[in-house]
Amino acid sequence: MAQKTTTREAAAPSLGIDTDLARRLLRDMMRIRRFEEKAAEAYALGKIGGFLHLYIGEEAVAVGATSTLRPDDYAISAYREHGHCLAKGSDPARIMAELFGRRDGLSKGKGGSMHLFDRGVNFLGGHAIVGAHLPIAAGVAFAIKYQGGDQVVVCYFGDGAVPEGEFHEAMNLAALWKLPVIYLCENNRYAMGTSLERALAQTEIWKFGQVYGVPCEAVDGMDVLAVREAVARAVARARVDKTPSLIEARTYRFRGHSMRDPAGAVYRTREEVEREKQRDPLIVFRDRALAAGLLGEADIRAIEKDVNDRIDEAVAFADASPEPPVEWLLTDIYKEG
Ligand SMILES: Cc1ncc(C[n+]2csc(CCOP(=O)(O)OP(=O)(O)O)c2C)c(N)n1
Ligand SMILES: [Mg+2]
Description:
Blueprint: E1 5-6, H1 19-44, H2 59-66, E2 74-76, H3 82-88, H4 92-99, H5 133-146, E3 153-158, H6 165-176, E4 181-187, E5 190-191, E6 194-195, H7 196-199, H8 208-211, E7 216-220, H9 224-241, E8 245-250, H10 270-277, H11 281-291, H12 297-320
Helix pairs in contact: 1-2, 1-3, 1-11, 1-12, 2-3, 2-9, 4-12, 5-6
Bound molecules: thiamine diphosphate and magnesium ion.
């Protein structure tokens, strides 16, 4: 079991990836960032109701992890899931329409920000109850194994899920039944306004893997390549040996918990937030790709333009989509009789 935090050197001359991959990683992170900036704008304009939890600052985790997956692998997440769903390949326009509560949204406008699902890309939600989807991920992995498949499941969750019973039940079953699931904890150091130190007796989250005999490691979650390498190791173990893994990605949310806590300024110091912004995963990776000669300034401008155009289209699509009809309130639900 690895015990160190994996971090690539900032000045590494060669990143060990090709231009195509560099372009894809940067594009996917920029797409998430832009999508969420536009979602925040739409929320302020009253176009999005209910909850909205932004992933800004954490993009390297979803993008690094997804870059190791096949399209038929599964991803499942909590409520801060726009980035995971986008990274898995969902159409930004249909996600935006869901946030707007419109009928062309991924969940027909009936789920909203916290309940994105997309069978087309094997994205299994979007779960608002902290910890609830961890046993579901184990169940999906069990189904894959039972049916003789070789897909894997990546389950994203926050540090706030670790003290919950579901985390421990799921880790136990995954280890006991040797399930092809990767538990990927996004440790952003806060659960709403509660810091990690106030909630966990053991703050080295990766160590919980040890007691269950699950391969585990911590990784710099602001470093897309470090995340990619750690998850690739876990995917290889899961796909071939049906061995689960626990990865703790150390990351940071630049915004508050939700739009009701826009800056997270009550429980964090301004200095802390500014210090973490120096580790902005998009800027760090962009600069490394430039320094390594993988991308030029013109490439980056082209990616940026492409991303901005696509997200503008997503907003226009969401704006144009009608509201779901009232009769839809009684469809897609479980009911007796
Ligand atoms: C079982 C349960 N308890 C409490 C809540 C209220 N709640 C919503 S988000 C949250 C914090 C979770 O933090 P974390 O898992 O670290 O995720 P992050 O928001 O940092 O991404 C809490 C306690 C909930 N949704 N579900
Ligand atoms: Mg957290």
